Amino acid sequence: MRTPLASTARDGLKIAVVGGFGVGKTTLVRSVSEIRPLNTEETMTQAGVGIDDARSADGKTTTTVAFDFGRITLNEEMVLYLFGAPGQERFWFLWERLFAGTLGAVVLVDPRRLEESWYAIDRLEHHGMPFVLARNNFGAPEHTLDEVRDALSLPADIPMVDCDARSREDCKSVLISLVNHLYALSFAREQAL
Length: 193
Prior knowledge:
The protein is an alpha/beta fold. Helices cover 30% and strands 23% of the residues. It has five helices and eight strands. The protein has helices spanning 25-32, 93-99, 118-127, 145-152, 168-192, and strands at 11-19, 41-43, 62-64, 68-73, 78-84, 104-109, 131-136, 160-163. The chain has a six-stranded mixed β-sheet. A two-stranded antiparallel sheet has the order 2-3. Helix 1 crosses helix 5 (168-192). The protein starts with 10 loop residues before the first strand and ends with a helix.
């Protein structure tokens, strides 16, 4: 069911969802969006063999070739826009444009392939963009969040949460974690003045 944008909406807030290939970014945007998300999923073809490595993404037959877009109404005047970035290296150039005007980001990671998170973390740190890390669990986690933090060399002030990208409630919790992190950073800056 389509939820129309309220005529009273005045402020749009933008959040990016980034991460490696096949970690669940499209699924997260679909799970939490109040509208049918715009997505640019295309069937993976022979042309991508040797370019996109789908071996680590079990059963993946489609891939995002531009971005995903979803929306959540926060109140009568504020809406949250979600932009899911493509994970393959050949589309990373799009990330710079997606970051423009973004308040913060969710780095979605597959705990079986943590090494695919480095680029996303590096780009966000390069831009000075606040982010939270969400571990998309594909079964019972093998490592604690602290072990994941150590493996990714993340500072203690970066929030980390567990989620299942197929669960609307889990995805809402991830976004709430990011909003709380953004609020805490804003409050700390105000106190420093």
